[in-house]
Amino acid sequence: MAQTTLAKALNNGLRAAMERDPKVIVMGEDVGKLGGVYRVTDGLQKDFGEQRVLDTPLAESGIIGTAVGLAIRGFRPVCEIQFDGFVFPGFDQIVSQLAKLHYRSQGKVKVPVVVRIPFGGGIGAVEHHSESPESYFAHAAGLKVVACSNPADAYWMIQQAIASDDPVIFFEPKRRYWEKGEIDLDAEPHPLFASRVVRPGSTLTVATYGPMLKTCLAAASAAESDGHELEVIDLRTLSPLDLDPVLESVRRTGHLVVVAEAPSESSITSEVVARVQQAAFYSLEAPVLRVTGFDTPYPPSKCEEDYLPDLDRVLDAVDRSLAW
Amino acid sequence: MSVPQDWTPPTAGSQDSRPSREHVVAGLKATDEGDPELVQLLTPEGERVADPRFDKYATDVDVDALRSLYRDLVLVRRFDREGNALQRQGQLGIWVPLLGQEAAQIGAGRAMAPQDMAFPSYREHGVAWTRGIDPTDLLGIFRGTDHGSWDPKATRFHLYTIVIGNQVLNAAGYAMGQKFEGKVGDGPDSEATICFFGDGATSQGDVHEGFVWAAVYDAPVVFYCQNNQWAISEPTERQSRVPLYKRATGYGFPGIRVDGNDVLACLAVTRWALEECRSGNGPVLIEAFTYRMDAHTTSDDPSRYRLADELELWKLKDPIERVRVNLVREHGVGQEFFDGVQAESDELAARFREFCVNMPQPAPDRMFSQVYAEPSPLIEAQRAEFLDYHASFEGV
Ligand SMILES: Cc1ncc(C[n+]2csc(CCOP(=O)(O)OP(=O)(O)O)c2C)c(N)n1
User: Fold this and answer.
1) What are phi and psi of B120, to 5 degrees?
2) What range(s) does the Dehydrogenase E1 component domain occupy (chain B) (predicted)?
3) Which atom of ligand 1 is the closest one to the Cα of A89?
4) Overall average pLDDT of the B19-39 stretch
5) Which residue, of A123, A150, A181, is where some domain finishes?
6) Are residues A156 and A238 in the same domain?
């Protein structure tokens, strides 16, 4: 397949899933005629009709809550939340119903709902349009949480998430929507709930996900000129975390830097640190360092360059780790 | 509950009263444009029409007051257009236009007493104007230097709220506070609250809950819904099967629809509603029936969903033009006045622009300020680390 943007890859993935299974429906605000504010659902309503691509009333609790009901009835709803900061009106339905129904019914009720959330900053937006709320969901037992980082993964992961019988919170790095990549349709897709070594290296391990993957890969290229071989791992699955590749890597490199846009306190990155030190304590030659957003509300966009981890901050952490 | 004398409580919408899908222009569906309940004091042709229910709330609007309303409308439209242009020129990250909604906002805003409190959504630049907020104070949000720079307490105009419907509960709570403090009644210092939101917002749970709270605590709050026909790409019929104002009945308070392009009607109806609230008879729902003449925001592309016909139809109902025509025809106001307002609006636009392009970049550690009211060791440690890191680049 030719070079495709991440947004288009998701669109193609959704289309493939809808063609495969008539029970897959897409629902959310502006997903129909407009094709979503990021055009991820562009053209789907035209091709699949208004009953499979629902322009919903403007209510996130309604979107998630009715998706749960549709799922109980046998549908596989894919909900779009317009922006990260707007998932909270639907949070109650996500944590109270979506996450718990399978457990409460002891498996008698399945709720294969996918909740797509464009997340993260770097697009110069106003409040509530740049947040990284993934840790809230990872903290809720019963949900699976994944984040794609590139077009090929986006294409496969969305289909795998829809095929999963569990509810999946699906994070899309909005500032990477327009970035292109190759999708090999003949390749066997990487499993959904597995992380992946994206760039092998032997000096230090960098673990990251979503929008920060690109930043970390750039840092790895830059570090090369200093003679450092960074191994970059895309976590991909945030709950359950798949730390085996990270542990294997850390046992070789002895150094780990974890990078994410979200604030640091009680987050995915804290979880990675806690588990790695527990499982690979004697392999570590330096404390695990984190490069994250700060523990402030997402700032006005003129400050976001300072707020978001960038190449320099990643390299600074790499230097500190290696100098330990 | 006291209502104007010949007020007829709105009847619940029946299914048959819904226009058929085929017959109505997309944006007007399910909204009963020709509803006889629509309050109007100034026709689109600029003719003053009598309304036995609401005339008494506009008797003081003489020619000077009308000129003043006209000036408000023109100046607000002017800086709104400038905001749009500044975004196109890369000076603003985004702009949320109010084109077409000037009368709905000026009428409501000018109906407020100084002690009343307003809770806006994010498009209420005209209401901000009536609260004495300088338009330049709105710029930081859209340029990305702050989340709202005015003082909500001093101006009695809360910060803009972007999460749809969130502010409706906050307004209900604020109004409950006014009531608990004994600020409703006939006294000179009695207060009310007004809360602004869109037609799409009426689908949110928060808005429904806000209605419930306000009703059961008799909170003095006017819910002011600007039905501009669209929630981004979704027409009102995607949110409701009945005209929105009719929903109020189900909560037990009056709902009324006013011509949102008629500044006089918006003023009169909002005055009535605020008085109801101040005197203890609130809440009230007002549906200002209007139209978003521009895109939802500068990031939106309405050509993907909106019909050109519809836009043309609403151009004929322009809120400013009808006041101008009325001033000329019924009050003999001469060109000099209009030229004066025009000149003033150009000055405002120039000042707005200059302020915008010269806005300073926030200090790098601005993001750490005021996260908590009390000291936070975590934030202070992060700030110190950040400043050290920043300093390490100096002289590099
Ligand atoms: C909770 C929430 N969900 C989604 C959005 C994204 N969004 C911003 S404005 C908008 C449409 C709002 O329509 P309406 O309430 O009619 O107000 P209008 O902008 O037309 O004045 C949407 C969906 C949001 N801001 N908040």
Assistant:
1) -90, 165
2) 73-345
3) 1
4) 50
5) A181
6) no
